């Protein structure tokens, strides 16, 4: 089968071609039929989810989407509970647990209830344009949640859900995490320690050659740089008494980052900066203020940015290098660099790659092309990073689409069925393996 089939053609080949079911068991063939029968239902669920605004800071909206997902999971035999997170400034998380026979591999499914689109966003509503659905959060991550429901319903119809130990964690603050992360991600970390395998339902990676698998994601942590200098008349700058001032020290450090940090899969971005007498940030925001004059040596300068790395070792080495650059002060200046809590890296481990191989066995039996590894530098951080240290993990199991986090975000509707069938078969096979 050509790797250049369009998504709709891939789905048609998967669901309609008689010969592709040769590698499927009778139960898997029933899943295939159930996925096809639920197509209209799944699209209707997607529309209902999208029409309910659930911007991260819309606590009531996130809670309502959680209740909508409870209504989908509870009838499938899941014990569903809500974990309140208002003490972190966020709504909470939905955690659903299906107790199987206790003998197979434990499978964790990860998605999120919230979107980047708050109630005052100009991007609202839900509409269809051919095979596309367009709306706020339609792909990130409401399409992913629908894929989870589609897969679990197909498993129930085929009888494979009954013995499966499955947990679903839908966070309510993936787009803007509650603080501290040690609190807001505690339940997810615990779920990762419970699980043998984790599947994350952010959007499917699609390349010009076809679908791809996400076995790695870079982590992301914020940093803040503060430099200081001796204020005084600009006529004394560069001299022994005043030195170089805070602005030159900031420029030296940032240029050192530019020159010494770049390497594969590592980035250090400077998002905002300011310098003068005085200068600083407004609280915990990313709004910086500064004032001064051209004839005054700057007393203070500030900058905030992020660091992204592929592995914990790469991140640790980058942090050490950044601190070493900071420590080489210009005369009469000082500087401090601090790192905030962040998303850990999801490294491309042997276990993650073995899990992709299992997914590709499903693709083979469905007559679909094998999925290569997707470039981790093209993916953002995600909740799967919090479980990857404890469970074999693969990401991007959600629906295919585009324009995430922007007006016009869209999802390919046929991909919901394709992804739902892939997941249903993969989860069933994993759950049947003895631990």
From TrEMBL:
Annotated GO MF terms: hydrolase activity; metal ion binding
Record field: transmembrane: none
Domain Peptidase M20 dimerisation: 215-332
Cofactor(s) of this protein: Zn(2+)
Signal peptide bounds: 1-21
InterPro entries named in the record: ArgE/DapE_CS, Bact_exopeptidase_dim_dom, Peptidase_M20, Peptidase_M20_dimer, Peptidase_M20A
Keywords for the protein's UniProt record, in alphabetical order: Hydrolase, Metal-binding, Signal, Zinc
Name of the protein in question: Peptidase M20
Species in which this protein is naturally found: Sphingomonas adhaesiva
Lineage, uppermost ranks: Bacteria, Pseudomonadati, Pseudomonadota, Alphaproteobacteria, Sphingomonadales
């Amino acid at each position: 089968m050509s790797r250049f089939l369009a998504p709709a053609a891939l789905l048609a080949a998967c669901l309609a071609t008689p010969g592709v079911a040769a590698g499927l068991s009778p139960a898997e063939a029933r899943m295939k039929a159930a996925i096809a029968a639920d197509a209209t239902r799944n699209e209707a669920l997607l529309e209902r989810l999208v029409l309910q605004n659930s911007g991260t800071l819309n606590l009531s909206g996130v809670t309502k989407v959680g209740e909508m997902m409870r209504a989908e999971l509870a009838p499938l035999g899941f014990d569903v509970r809500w974990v309140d997170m208002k003490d972190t400034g966020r709504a909470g998380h939905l955690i659903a647990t299906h107790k199987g026979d206790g003998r197979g591999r434990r499978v964790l499914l990860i998605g999120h209830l919230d979107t980047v689109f708050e109630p005052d966003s100009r991007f609202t509503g839900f509409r269809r344009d051919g095979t596309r659905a367009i709306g706020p959060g339609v792909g990130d991550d409401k399409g992913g949640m629908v894929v989870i429901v589609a897969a679990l319903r197909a498993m129930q119809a085929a009888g494979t859900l009954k013995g499966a130990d499955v947990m679903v964690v839908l966070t309510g603050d993936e787009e803007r995490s509650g603080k501290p992360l040690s609190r807001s991600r505690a339940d997810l970390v615990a779920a990762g320690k419970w699980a043998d395998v984790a599947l994350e339902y952010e959007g499917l990676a699609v390349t010009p050659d076809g679908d791809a698998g996400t076995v790695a994601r870079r982590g992301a942590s914020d940093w803040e740089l503060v430099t200081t200098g001796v204020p005084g008349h600009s006529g004394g700058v560069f001299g022994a008494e005043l030195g170089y001032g805070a602005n030159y020290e900031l420029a030296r450090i940032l240029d050192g980052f530019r020159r010494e940090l770049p390497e594969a899969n590592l980035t250090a971005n400077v998002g905002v900066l300011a310098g003068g007498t005085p200068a600083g940030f407004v609280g915990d925001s990313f709004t910086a203020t500064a004032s001064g004059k051209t004839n005054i040596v700057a007393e203070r300068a500030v900058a905030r940015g992020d660091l992204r790395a592929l592995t914990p070792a790469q991140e640790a080495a980058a942090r050490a290098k950044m601190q070493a650059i900071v420590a080489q002060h210009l005369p009469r200046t000082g500087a401090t660099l601090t790192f905030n809590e962040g998303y850990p890296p999801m490294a491309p481990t042997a276990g993650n790659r073995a899990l992709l191989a299992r997914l590709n066995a499903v693709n083979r039996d469905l007559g679909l092309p094998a999925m290569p590894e997707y470039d981790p530098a093209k993916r953002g951080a995600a909740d799967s990073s919090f479980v990857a240290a404890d469970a074999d993990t693969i990401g991007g199991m959600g629906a295919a689409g585009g324009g995430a986090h922007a007006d016009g975000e869209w999802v390919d509707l046929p991909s919901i069925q394709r992804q739902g069938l892939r997941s249903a078969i993969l989860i069933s096979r994993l759950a049947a393996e003895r631990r």
